[in-house]
């Protein structure tokens, strides 16, 4: 369902677009919060046309370029999805699983793993901060930019994850030093 909502939201925000343009937007903008391959986008667009959430218009010569436009039914679907959160579902989180299993590694290796994780989260955070700076450089229209709240959530999330990984590495290093580097 979320791919559908992400596509509808993109069409609602950006206006009519081809499948290629939507895929490019996913690659450039939405990729931070929802990943989708071109091969996933086109079948979903066909389902959305069939359900009446979007219309499609053939444009441009023999290349078969199709432009999709959100309908009122599609806008209603977005409104219902955003305004009525679904019940909590189990989440798969590889970082949390790694943290759960971390004590199985020798402390020095566990600390190095966490240092590497902290660096990866710091790099992702830097990318998001650059994105925010670029948005701010373009100037604000008074309205939040499309994806602006998600960008803020990403910045806060990667800040917490970076700090948590650093603190965990420090704790593991302290424990290793106290234990003479032995044990798990």
Automatic annotation (TrEMBL):
Residues 8-79 form the Transcription regulator PadR N-terminal domain. Residues 91-173 form the Transcription regulator PadR C-terminal domain. The lineage of its organism: Bacteria, Bacillati, Actinomycetota, Actinomycetes, Kitasatosporales. InterPro entries: Tscrpt_reg_PadR_C, Tscrpt_reg_PadR_N, WH-like_DNA-bd_sf, WH_DNA-bd_sf. It holds the Pfam family PadR. This is PadR family transcriptional regulator.
């Amino acid at each position: 369902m979320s791919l559908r909502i992400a596509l509808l939201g993109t069409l609602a925000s950006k206006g009519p677009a081809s499948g290629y343009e939507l895929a490019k937007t996913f690659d450039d903008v939405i990729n931070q919060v929802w990943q989708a391959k071109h091969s996933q986008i086109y079948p979903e667009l066909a389902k959305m046309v069939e359900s009446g959430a979007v219309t499609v218009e053939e444009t441009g010569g023999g290349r078969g370029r199709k432009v999709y436009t959100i309908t009122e039914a599609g806008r209603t679907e977005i409104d219902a999805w955003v305004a009525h959160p679904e019940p909590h579902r189990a989440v798969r989180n590889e970082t949390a699983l790694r943290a759960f299993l971390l004590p199985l590694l020798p402390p020095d290796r566990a600390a190095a793993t966490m240092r590497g994780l902290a660096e990866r989260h710091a790099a992702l955070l830097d990318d998001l901060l650059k994105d925010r700076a670029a948005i701010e450089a373009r100037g604000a229209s008074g309205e939040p930019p499309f994806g602006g709240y998600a960008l803020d959530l990403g910045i806060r999330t990667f800040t917490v994850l970076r700090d948590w990984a650093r603190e965990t590495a420090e704790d593991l290093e302290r424990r290793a030093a106290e234990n003479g580097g032995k044990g798990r």
